[in-house]
Structure formats: structure tokens, C-alpha cells
Amino acid sequence: MSEEFEIAIVGSGPSGLSAAARAAQKEISHILLETTDHASDTIYKFQKRKFVMATPDVMPLRSDTSFAAGTREEILEKWDEEIEHQKVNISYNSEVTGISGEKGNFTLEVKGGRTIKANHVVLSIGMQGNLRKLDVDGDDWEYVQYQLDDPEEYEDETIIVVGAGDAAIENAIALAAQNRVALVNRKGEFARIKAGNLTLVTEAIDSGLIECYYNATTSRISPGEIVLKTPDGETTVPCDRIIARLGAMAPRRFVESCGIKFTSDEPSALPELSERYESSVPGLYVVGALAGYPLIKLAMNQGYEVVETISGNEISPADEPLLEEKFAALHGRGVNEVLKEIQENVPLLSHMSALQFREFMIDSAVHLAKPGDVIFKRNEYTNSVFSVVDGRVNVQINAEDDNELVELKNGSFFGEMGLIAGRRRTATVVAKTECFLVETPRRAMLKLISSVPGAKKVLDTAAIYRQIQTHLTPNIEKELLKEIVDTATIESVSAGEKLISEGDESDHMFIIRAGSMTVSKVIGGRSVILSYIPSGNYVGEMALLNNEPRSASVTATVASEVIKIDAVAFRELLGRENELKQVIEEKFQDRIVENLETEDRPEAGDIIDFLVGQGVGEASDVLLIDESLCVRCDNCEKACAETHGGISRLNREAGPTFENLHVPTSCRHCEHPHCMSDCPADAIHRAQDGEVFIDDKCIGCGNCVNNCPYGVIQLAYPPAKKPGLWSWLLFGSGPGPGQDKTNTTKVEGARSVAAKCDMCKDIEGGASCVSACPTGAAIRVNPEEFLSITNLAKSS
Amino acid sequence: MHDGFLTYANSRYLKLAAAVCLTSIVAYILYEPVDEHNGGTVLGYILGTVGALLIFWLTWLGIRKRKYGGHFRLTGWVSAHVYLGLSLIVVATLHTGFQFDWNLHTLAYALMIIVIVSGIFGIYAYARYPKLVSANRRGASLDDLLTQIGDIDRESRQLAVGLPDEVSSLILKSCEETAIGGSIFRILSGKAVNCPSDNAFAKLRGLVSSVDQEHVLNTRKLLVLTGKKCGLLGTVRRDIQLKALMDIWLRVHVPVTVALLIALTAHIISVFYYW
Ligand SMILES: Cc1cc2nc3c(=O)[nH]c(=O)nc-3n(C[C@H](O)[C@H](O)[C@H](O)COP(=O)(O)OP(=O)(O)OC[C@H]3O[C@@H](n4cnc5c(N)ncnc54)[C@H](O)[C@@H]3O)c2cc1C
Ligand code: HEM
Ligand code: HEM
Ligand code: SF4
Ligand code: SF4
User: Fold this and answer.
1) Do B68 and A772 touch (CB under 8 A)?
2) Structural domain boundaries in chain A
3) Interface pTM (ipTM) of the complex?
4) From the list A638, A654, A657, which residue is nearest B134 (CB)?
């Protein structure tokens, strides 16, 4: 005999649970089937006490099941309570092995022989049920596992971790604290892992903390040992435990057996779904991670929506109120109407799917500007990008003359240069007419560029033209540049890579659009650095002008991007444009003189070399210490701690020294901050004057700590309260000013968060380390000024 | 490379201090006291007041230094402190009219001179030692050096296992009893008396040729390691010595400042009392 329901929900993860709760609330007959003996197995298997995040923050939660950021334990406990309370009809130990039938008449096979009939089916089984297995002889040994709950549970064991993804690395590193750990990597390197994990694992392997077998696969396992196939033949490694982290896949075979089509044959492909999450089988819906929304809150919202859809309610998406509020200023026009207007008008934004675009607009802001309103100013450090949906703006391209204007019409965008170069705005933009603008922050913009090829193309084409015009040929009509722009391409250069090699034939010149370079020349058998060239400058024009081989090498100091300009087109332009030729010729002369100066004084070049090696090449502001003046009083550190909640963000003594120039461990405020790249809470930002800072959204995940190549971020607990200056002075109550500079001991109930230098952006009088230095040894410098040869020459 | 506190803002405070001294001297020459030059004349009172105000202001540096954040440059304060502090030599001396005696007033004066002299030593220390610290450490931090020493100790202990007692006891002593620091005089001397590591190094040289053949290799390794350790210890001791030298004068400067404030207050009260 089989049971009958209106809706059968398969899988009790956040999406399934939310769907069932909705059905229970609406008194729709339903059943929630779960393989395991507890709800929400994926979350159940998180590391103990893991802090679960509720991203994206702005997205409201729409579910009868509650959810907020908190520990794994808190969340699971609450859900269990609600299942009970809300009369969710959940059936544990019920693995669904097959789904057949059609809308109004589905049959679900449950392991153990039970069958269930349902009019509609919601498939919410996630991906974690389908972990890749080792699949070798002996893999049934009881100490082979595919998950790690709590690394602290293991002590003094020899553990083999198989895999080279983030999960494997994170496990290996956590385990290595108390165990002997070896990693088995199928490849010769660690590709496709987070930069931070790469640094960590490389360090751990180099220091011998973790052993690593490269190009190795598992041949077989027997109790107490694993046999690896390595390039040098088979090796047997004794071990107490094997943890294989090989990733998860969509349980494709099962899903396809239900009749559901996938979008492609790619291993990463997902089921084909309508906007209402209906699969290719009518009446069979897919939500949650399997639908491509691998975040708890999104999954829960979908569970709610899908039940509403099934019960015939056309409801608008959960983000509708957010967009309504955002568009409120637009005289009450409907959300869809506005969205459509924007996409139709702005080619840059037209390539996104409807769902992508909604997300994009939630991150963006809309502005109505009046004629004369300043949108942004030259030299600001803001890095959002503006799209002109309607109206026109004027760009003041000449710092000396506010009347030299370029007009941008509706459909265009601006502000991308700051985004690309990570530097100050190069122009001021003023509204010319009434304008409807969309402002998109850096993060959303980067996501757009990396995930939508069409948008990247639009952006690149416009950017090439603008960068050539700004940095090379300011006074030349757009039409005359066509040939140069058409033949120009964008190239990436990795740190340390040579863009130009001395002695080579020359057939291109380059504009540096992101990053920075050094120019060097072999003199007396030794490579001597002649100058430092920040982005926004061109290189390689010398040889082109004279039709000679390259006279010097140009090397990227950090990952950089250049616009490569064809020699033929460039020479032809110079042939036509006498004035331009003169300007370039003049700059060329200046550079020759400058180079001669440094050739005489190689020390300046050595200083550049040293500083560039310390990341100053990508810095926007860096703290240096003149050791010939520094009396090691550490008042800088004390000042930092005293003005930043008791935690010094700078370590004076650590860091390298060259001659008397010391680069302490302190934030460089990178042009493209590495720390920002992977902050799940979006807690790291750049302020108007360039300060990179962390706000109180930080959840202490530590990604930024790992991602910063200069080791300047630390996780710290908030410190205990301190006595005032006078009571310390007069009554000796401690700790005194500057004592107890870091605090890594835990105050009851406190959570550690990331702390780094914010250049004292909220403190009157600027950087307190510099103002507290008694001898003037500590200085903050802008690398572009500091590294100019003339400056270095003057100072020593 | 850029301006330190001595040349801060084009030596603005050097000029100011020079002006103060010059004015005082000129006033002293021009002024004709009824009786003779001393603190009780009109000019005496003026100079005394200026001097006392300067002293209180100079002392304020200790507070200023610890109030972090805000529109100020401590470098500028120190620059002014140094030059105006020096100008006291002129201002206060002229105030006294060279009337020194064994009394409270002269005690205050003497204390002031001690503070100033210690300050002058401070300037010498600040000018000379920072470069020596860098040169001595050659880019390594103190922590690095201590870690290296720890590593050598660990390696030495392992090597010493199985070697004759005379060798292993030397190494054990070197690992366990070598002290860095100690009394302030020891630190300032930069040397260690009877350092077990130096000792071990000296004795190992002899032992290398006298131990059994099978132990020669390891004993020689120990000799090299211990030699390296002694070198590192030298660097560490020198580092601590130099840092102490940059700090020690403040241990005179500040307490004597406190004594000076007390004596000065007493001086001022007493002259008003006898008035
Ligand atoms: C290590 C890790 C950390 C994460 N951290 C976060 C975070 O901090 N914040 C966040 O928002 N997201 C996080 N996620 C993502 C989040 O866990 C998933 O997006 C979310 O769990 C997806 O929910 P779901 O309902 O689609 O599927 P799941 O949660 O995977 O649930 C699927 C359920 O279906 C059951 N099931 C599977 N097959 C069957 C079957 N055939 N029959 C019956 N039942 C079945 C399973 O037992 C399971 O209980 C993290 C994921 C991982 C792996
Ligand atoms: C408000 C500030 C001051 C006042 C009002 C003041 C007042 C006086 C007076 C009235 C005298 C003459 C006393 C006498 O002849 O018996 C005197 C002398 C003297 N004062 Fe001051 N004084 C001041 C600050 C100072 C300072 C800053 C110093 C140095 C630290 C100083 C050191 C002396 C000395 C050494 C004498 C000479 C004592 C002597 O005559 O035997 N005074 N002062
Ligand atoms: C009577 C005069 C002086 C008084 C009362 C005085 C007092 C002080 C005080 C209270 C401090 C603060 C120390 C601390 O808290 O760390 C200080 C620091 C200092 N003083 Fe003086 N001082 C005097 C004269 C001088 C002179 C003449 C010089 C130099 C020639 C000098 C050089 C310094 C220096 C270099 C510092 C250290 C600054 C630092 O490293 O923070 N002082 N002094
Ligand atoms: S924290 Fe590190 S990565 Fe981030 S800006 Fe500072 S130096 Fe650059
Ligand atoms: S620890 Fe760093 S990356 Fe993680 S949330 Fe905080 S700021 Fe962001």
C-alpha cells in the first residue's frame, strides 16, 4: 500500500526544510523524506562549532524556518525544534531511490520497499550526498573517511590526506597541528585553490610540517597502510587513517534517472530549470545547491517560493522589496520596468540573465543627478563604476583646465579606470543634464567581468580606447586613433615576468594599465634597475622611435596588465601627428637623462629593487622606517595599539632592511588588495583616500589573513579594558599605555576578528605611528613619488 | 634620507632657542640691577619665570608622548624639547646671577644641569647607536637570532649524546647555563663573564685533538656549532647593550626631572616665603 501526498519533498537540507515548513504552514499534505536519521545532513556534517554565515547579507530571508548567522549547533537545534513545533511531516531513514510518473501522479521509491505517491515533487538533495570516493581495493577499511568533523579529535596519528582542493588542504593543515600528515596530490602542483591556502600549504610543505606526494595516485589500501603510485614506482606508506577529500558532484545518475535534463555534458553542469525552478519534467522541481544556489539563505527562500508556486501563487522573488526600495526615487515606476530600461539602454549590462541582473542591481545603487552635480572628483580613491541609463555627463579630462570636457551619452559608463588600475580617479565627472545613473561597487563589477564574457568585451574595448587617449595621446580626435585601438590588445603579465627584454627586436609599445614595472639594464654583467614605472605610463616607445633593438628590459613588479600597441599603427600615427611626436620625443629625452643619472648611481636602483621586492610596487601608501634615526622605542607600535582598541597593527621589528631602510610588517594599502579577494562577508573596503580597512561585518574566517602576501593581518580577540593614563601614571594601575600590544587570549564569549592597519582614517591628525615617532624615523610614503629616481638621488 | 628631529622643520626650534638665549644675554648685559645680578631683581624674576615655565613644559613631553592620535608630530615636540631644554642653561644661569651657594636654590639648579647633561648624552645616543644596531644585526630580528640559538642548542644536544662526558658536560652547561642579559651593568658592558658557551668553545678546541678517533667528527661539528652560537650570542648581547644605551639615560633624565620639579617648587615657595 502506498501513501499519498500533494507534495513530496526529497532531502531535508535548508531548501527542503523550508519547503516543508511552508507546506505545513499552509496545511498542504506533504512529506519530507530524509536519508539519514537527522535533518539537514550537510550542515550536520560541518566541522563542530563552525560559524555558519548568512550571506548575502542584504537578501531578506523568506521562510517559515528561521535562520541567522551562528554556530552549527545553534542552527541545528533551532531547526529541530521548529520541525517539531510546526508539525513538519518528516520521515527519517528514508532514502529515495527512484522517482517516476508525471505531474499529478508521481511515484517515489524509498529504500526498504516503501512507495509514496505525490502530485508534485520537490527535489532538494544538494550535492554533498555525492562525494567522490577513492574507489580502490581496500577502501572499505574502517579508517578511510571522506569527511572531517573536528580536526582536534585526532592526536599523534599518521594521517594521509588524499586530494589537492581547498577542503583537503584545510583539513591537512588543521590536522598537522597534532599529527603527522602527508598529502597525496594527483598533479605536480596545487592548481585551482584559494591563494591563501596555496601560501599555507607551500609553507607547510617547505618547512617539513606536511609531507607531500606529487603526481601520485592511490593504488590500493590495506589496514594500516596505503599504496601510492608515484613517478618513481609504487610506495607503501604506513598510516593510521586516510581522509580523502575529492569533492562532490551533482548526483547526476540519480537525477537523470528521474527524467531531468542537464544543461550540458560538462561534469559541473546543473539541471535545466525554468525561472520557477521547474525541471524538464513538469511538476518536478529542483531547489537548493542542486539548482545552483549553494548558500543556505538562498536555498531556504527557494524552498518557500516553490511551495507557493505549486499552490498556484504567483509570488515575486524575495528580493523584490529590496529593488522596490532602491528604485523608490524613480517616481514609483515598477521594478521590472526599471530593470528593463537599464538593460536596454546600457550595453555593458545587457549581457546578464534576468536572475544575474537582479543580483547585480541589489549590489548597485541608483542615482538621479541634477545638472552640475559632481559624480566623483579627480584623485579620489573610490572604485565603483557608473553606467549612464539616461542623460549626459561631462568628464573633465584636464587637471589644469576644467573646461576641457568629454561628453558621455546615455548607454555609456565611466569610472572603470579606477577599477582597473586600483588608483586614484584620473578625472572629475559632472552631470551635464538630469541623469539616471547606476553605481556598481568594485566587487559586483569584478563578478560581472569574470562571469559574463560579453560584458568584459564591452568594458575592455571602451577601456583600451580611453586609456590610450588618457595616457598616450590626450589631444587627439577619437577617429584618428581607430587604427591603433583596433590593433591593440590587452595582455596580462605576471609578477617578475619580463615584458620587454634588452636586445630584442621591437614591434610593440605598451601602456601599463594596472600594476607597475621596473626598467633595468645589464651594466658590467649585472642587471641594474634604472627606474620604476607605475601604471598610467607607457614603455617601449624608445626602440620604436629609433627602430632599434630594445635598449633595456622591462619587468613587472606585480601581476600587471598592459595594452599592447602595434608598431606600424603607432609609427603611422606619429607620422601624421607632429605635435604628439614632439611630446613623446621630449619624454624620451627626459628618460635618457634620468637613466644616465642612475647608471652613475646604481644604489638608487638597488633601493628600488629592494622595495619592489617588498610589495611597494603595488602599494598606494607604505610605512618605512629610517633605521639610522630609529631608536627602537616602539612608540609607533604603542600609538597604533592605543588608537586601535589595544591591538597594534604593525610590527616594527619584523620585516626586512636594506641599507638603513626598513619595511616593517604593516599594510601597504595595495592598489588591488589581495585581502579583499576572498572575504565572504564583504567586510574589506577602500576608503576615499585609499585606506584599505576592515569593517565590523568581519566574521573572523581568516581568509584575508591567508591572502595578504605581506602577513599584515592578524586575528585577535578584543582586549580587556585599560585604566586611564593618569591612574596608570599616578597609581600604577596597569596595563599602561602601549603595554600589552596584542591580545590573543580569549575573553569569555568573544570571537576573534581580523585586525589590520586602516591608516588611522578615523583618527584626527592622520597616521598615529608617524605622529608618535620621537625622532622622525617613521614615514609614510606614496611609492610613485618615493621611488622616482630623482627623489632617491636627492635624498641620499 | 629625510628630516630627523634635529633638523625638523628647517631647524625652526634651534632658531627659536637661539633667539631666547640671545635675548636673555642682551637683557642681562643691558639691565643694571640696583644691587647685583641675582634672582631677586626684576630681570631675575622674569628669567626665573621663563625658566620655570620652560621646565614644566619640558616635563609635559612625558605626557604628550603617551597621548596618542591627534594633530601633532612628536618629532616636532622632541626637536623643540631638545633646543629649548638647552636654552635653559643660559636662561637659568643668568637668572641666578651666578650666585651659587650650598642651598636649596643651587640644588634645584644642579638637578636641572644633571637633567640637561643626561639629555645631551641622549642626543649622542640617538645620533650614534641606531646605525650600530642595524649594522650589528645585519637584517635579522632579535627573535630570529634567539631562534637560531635555540636551534643550535637542540642540534648540539643531539650530537653530544654518546660523546665522552667531558664533551657532553660542556655542551650541557652551554645549553643550560648560558645567560643573556643579567644585571644592568652586565648588559651595558655588552660582555659576559665566564659564559659557559665561550668556555665550551675554548675547551672543545683542545678536546678535538684528544678525544677518541670515533668521536672526532662529532666533536668537531660541536666545535663549529658552538663557535657559531658564540658569534650569535655576541650579536645578541651587543644588540641588548646598544638598546640599553639608547634607553639608560632616560632612567636618569626622568627621575631627576621629578626631583627637579620638587626642588624647584620648594625654591619658588621659599623665596616667596622670605620675601
Ligand atoms: C564545508 C561547507 C561549508 C559551508 N558553509 C556555508 C555557510 O557558512 N553559509 C552558507 O550559507 N552556506 C554554506 N555552505 C553551503 C550550504 O551548506 C549549502 O548551500 C546548503 O546546505 C544547500 O542546501 P540544500 O538544501 O540544497 O542541500 P543540503 O543541505 O545538501 O541537503 C540535502 C539533504 O538531502 C538529503 N538527501 C540526499 N539525497 C537524498 C535521497 N536520495 N533521499 C533522501 N534524502 C536525500 C541529505 O541527507 C541532506 O540532508 C557550506 C557548504 C560546505 C560543504
Ligand atoms: C617662578 C620662577 C622663579 C622665581 C620666582 C625665582 C626666584 C628667585 C629669587 C627671588 C631668587 C633670589 C633669592 C635670594 O637672593 O635669596 C632666586 C635665586 C636663585 N634661583 Fe630662582 N626663581 C625661579 C626659578 C628658578 C629656576 C627655574 C632655577 C633653576 C633651576 C632657579 C635657581 C635659582 C638659583 C640657583 C638661585 C641663586 C640662589 C642664591 O642666590 O643662592 N630659580 N630665585
Ligand atoms: C630641565 C630640562 C629638561 C627636562 C625637565 C626634561 C624632561 C624630559 C621628560 C619628562 C622626558 C620624557 C621622557 C619619557 O617619558 O620617556 C624627556 C625626554 C627627552 N628629553 Fe628631556 N628634559 C630636559 C632637558 C633636555 C635636554 C636639554 C635635552 C637634550 C639636549 C633633552 C632630551 C630629551 C630627549 C631626547 C628625550 C626623549 C624623547 C623620546 O625619546 O621620547 N631633554 N625629557
Ligand atoms: S592587508 Fe595585505 S593585501 Fe591587503 S592591502 Fe594591506 S598589504 Fe595589501
Ligand atoms: S576574516 Fe578577513 S576575509 Fe574573513 S570575514 Fe573577516 S575581513 Fe573578511
Assistant:
1) yes
2) 3-129+249-316, 144-244, 322-456, 480-600, 612-795
3) 0.88
4) A657
